[in-house]
Design brief:
Blueprint: H1 26-36, E1 44-48, H2 54-61, E2 66-70, H3 74-86, E3 93-96, H4 100-107, E4 115-118, H5 126-134, E5 145-151, H6 159-162, E6 164-171, E7 175-182
Parallel strand pairs: 1-2, 1-4, 2-3, 4-5
Antiparallel strand pairs: 5-7, 6-7
Length: about 180
């Protein structure tokens, strides 16, 4: 796994040993960031369920102003620290080693994020829990783009009732990216 583009281009990233995380493949990451490219320069990026930190690091490499990484697995946190240090992007990143909902509560009251990416463990409805929290959070404004990586079977039919709209979905062989924003009033 490597950084695809930007300041840290071609640098290899460490991954978390074992099967607890599913690193996003380089091909899917490249497709994702091609779609996100207009949003990334100077943005505030939130990477939830960060794993190795590859998505947030890609955002920083491509010009995001700041990224917050949220991960509770201690081995993954060590991996994120190493990857931030190796890519020389540590000054632009902040790691919160805690549960995602706990981290969101700790960030409440600060600036909203431009992009929020989450890749929660599949089939545990964690994306729905996080979106339910974000529906009334100061971390999301009318310009925030939320991207959820989920398995192909994950249903997002509840978005409307939470005040969100699905902008689009990009499907791959085994998973998909769903692009979400707050509905306009």
């Amino acid at each position: 796994m490597r950084v695809i583009a930007g300041k840290a281009r071609r640098l290899n990233l460490k991954t978390v040993p074992g099967m607890e995380t599913r690193p996003t493949t380089d091909r899917i990451k490249e497709t994702l960031f091609n779609m996100l490219q207009p949003e990334i320069p100077d943005c505030r990026f939130l990477d939830l369920f960060s794993g190795s930190g590859a998505i947030g690091i890609e955002a920083l490499s491509r010009g995001a102003a700041f990224a917050v990484f949220v991960e509770k697995n201690p081995k993954a946190c060590a991996c994120i620290r190493e990857n931030l240090s190796f890519t020389k992007l540590a000054d632009s990143g902040k790691l919160l080693s805690m549960d995602v909902l706990q981290a969101l509560r700790s960030l409440e009251g600060g600036e909203s994020f431009d992009c929020i990416f989450m890749d929660p463990p599949y089939r545990q409805d964690l994306e729905q829990q996080v979106l339910a929290y974000l529906a009334d959070s100061s971390l999301v404004d009318e310009h925030t783009l939320i991207i959820v990586e989920a398995d192909l079977d994950t249903d997002f039919d509840y978005l409307d009732s939470m005040g969100f709209a699905q902008l689009r979905s990009k499907e791959y062989k085994t998973n998909k990216h769903v692009f979400i924003t707050r509905k306009e009033n």
